[in-house]
Give the backbone structure.
Amino acid sequence: MNAWLDDAAADAALMNDFHAICAFGGRLSGSGQDTAAIAWALSRMRQIGGEAQRVQVPYDGWQAGPANLALAGHDQPLACRALLRSASTPPGGLEGELLDLGEGRTEDFERAGDAVRGKIVLVRHEYPFSPRHIHRRRKYDLAVERGATAFLIANPVPGGGLLSGSSGRPRGGAGIPAAYVDHATGMALARAAARGSARAHLRIEGREDESAMADLAILDIPGGTDSRIVISAHMDGHDLGTSALDNATGVAVALAAARALAPRLSAHTHGLRVCLFTAEEWALAGSRRYLADMDPVQRQSLKLNINLDTVGGDTRLTALISDFPALAGFVADAGVDAGVPVSTYLPLMPNSDHANFAAHGIPALRLVAGFDRPESAVNNILSPGDTQAVVQESELRTALRATCAMAWRGLTATQETLDALARR
Ligand SMILES: [Zn+2]
């Protein structure tokens, strides 16, 4: 019945594309690898048909300089890595008393109360895809609000190395120096703090890049109406690994889905738009600016966003449906079409570009693998372990099948059905 989905999932170029994207490196925005990868993606898009164009948007660029951490009175350097857009320390660094706040959840900060003021706080990174997860940026904001002088966030996975992520601090915004530390460093700092009044010395240097532009690759393929179904994925990543899970998986699947869907568009379907964003790892800056700058009439033509971010690394797929309840049934029906079970999670998780579509009232979901499965290979994201080796071809093909089924339901839906998806 759905033979076309079998063909779609068998896309011959899927794995070549996936490896080609990883070959650019981690694709950190501002590194040049992101720009090169977007140029490559545009060449891939031009082979599909429709109109492919590069769009440039400004974002708050920033370049990391040296980062050093040590326990005061110890020469031994401890492994650390500045969060993107961290505030810089004074040139000679800063010294302060360490305060271990455990996971650094809201209740941990509340329990510590005024003791946070003036301290270097230590918190723990959490597996990002679970109902209880509190985002690094939220923990950082709590530390800033409560008067900490610096923020350290430890990888909870032994041997997992350093992690990379953004502080979310806007240009000119208040902020404090902030860095990831590896598991062993987190343990050493925690032991020192537990012994009482341990002090640490931290130096972070960063430089604003005032003229930074993010390159986006946008493919538009018209159908028979002005409405568009949007498949999106972010191309940028971090430079510890090759950003294979997060998010070469999503980009490769988005391109393959476009190849499968393009020949099926007609006067009887809506149009398809494929958006490959960058500066996603910078607090979702690229897609935010793209949508904010769009002519409102054109923005209203975007009827559904299927955002692919980390769609490999586990066999289970979940759609984070951003407080759009009608998307639950939509996703379930598409899962039946595809023969791929896709569960749904209703609350908005502002952890990828779908959140910016949702903010404009556009029904938006993030398809993600490994939701609430911290034991899965998805736990390699943001770490040196985020490489091709942890992604299985079968996972990508399953995600591709589910994506095509969802997009096809959208492309062939009546305007009434699309309007109903937007009700909250
Ligand atoms: Zn991502």
User: Anything to note?
Assistant: The first helix runs from residue 3 to 9. The first strand starts at residue 51 and ends at 58.
